[in-house]
Design a protein that fits this description.
CATH superfamily of one domain: P-loop containing nucleotide triphosphate hydrolases
Number of strands: 12
Order of helices and strands: EEEHEEEHEHHHHHEHEHEEHE
Distance between the termini: 19 Å
Low-confidence stretches: 288-292
Strand order of the largest sheet: 7-8-9-3-10-11-12
CATH topology of one domain: Rossmann fold
Structural class: alpha/beta
Mean pLDDT: 89
Amino acid sequence: MNDNPLTSSPLLQVRNLNVRFGSSPDAVRALRNVSFDLGREKLGVVGESGSGKSTLGRALLKLLPPIADVSAGNMRFSDLDLSAASEKQMLSVRGSQIGMIMQDPKFALDPTMKVGDQIGEAVTLHLGKRGRARRKHVLEMLDIVQIRDPERVYDLYAHQISGGMGQRVMIAMTLVAEPKIIIADEPTSALDVTVRRKLLMLLDELVSARGIGLIFITHDLDLAEGFCDRLLIMYAGQIVEELRSADLKNAQHPYTRGLLASLPRLDRPVDRLSVLVRDPVWCKDVSQRVEI
């Protein structure tokens, strides 16, 4: 893959994205002046629980609840500013151009519908296929995400499949319309190591073969470093540092360095891991993030 995926026009440009839950002076500010570009790459969004990672993914697709006050200088996707887009315009974007893989298939999949019917809904909605043509396309999608015996899985319900298979089903649903961008929200958090590795290989192949942009949301810094091309480090709703994954060990922000120091390393064993000490100044709005 190109070392600099942003040498050409980025797929997505976000400038000064803010999200506040409520209108009172003490309302929670979930995102504060978030700005970044996404190219045809794997972009990791990393941070602790509550840092704003999932809120960012949902804000891009306008999937936040009505209580959320969302504002942005610009969220440019193709010729459309998502921040100013109507709900009708967003309906043409969600799924067909920007897809999202939710964190947990147990909650994202409908327990009353068979797997084949759930993927089939996306096939009908985005491709207009019905009947045998729809079934054939669903089976092809199940095969693409490397599910063995697609005919059998087609007729199963969500509770009858494993977590790893559920994630693959959601990926199949996302890929039906061949979106330009995929937002993956903690897609491997509930998976064992073997299944996680296969899923990451599949996502990597999709980025390389289809030239899509992947926003990979995770709290696992080690995983993001090994899988992603670039990283956005989030703390208290802000991007405190942006850098290439290969440069992670040269991170400058004390929060990023603290996260690195708290990770166990086989090559540098210690008696006791470092505990991250947070500085209140990190919560203050930053006008410029650290970049390498």
